[in-house]
Design brief:
The protein is an all-alpha fold and 70 residues long. It contains four helices and no strands. It has helices at residues 10-14, 24-27, 40-43, 47-62. It is globular and about 35 Å long. It starts with 9 loop residues before the first helix and ends in an 8-residue tail after the last helix.
Length: 70
């Protein structure tokens, strides 16, 4: 069983200040193959960035940049 306890926030490591809904390449890394948002205990992202990610993914879906399902 994999351990996810020592994961660090990849968004902080990359130095991203704001997560934009138009950055679809970044957002696709945080959804599953069925386009469900990956929870933060798997990704290791901080709470602040996870909230920004989920809001950006939902906005991108609404703007038809990402599909709701596959």
């Amino acid at each position: 069983m994999p351990s996810y306890k020592n994961r660090k926030c990849q968004i902080t490591k990359k130095g991203i200040k704001f997560i934009d809904y138009k950055n679809v390449e970044l957002l696709e890394k945080y959804v599953t193959k069925y386009n469900k948002i990956i929870p933060r205990y798997y990704t290791g992202s901080s709470l602040k960035h996870q909230k920004q990610l989920s809001r950006a993914i939902k906005n991108a879906r609404y703007m038809a940049m990402m599909p709701y399902t596959k």
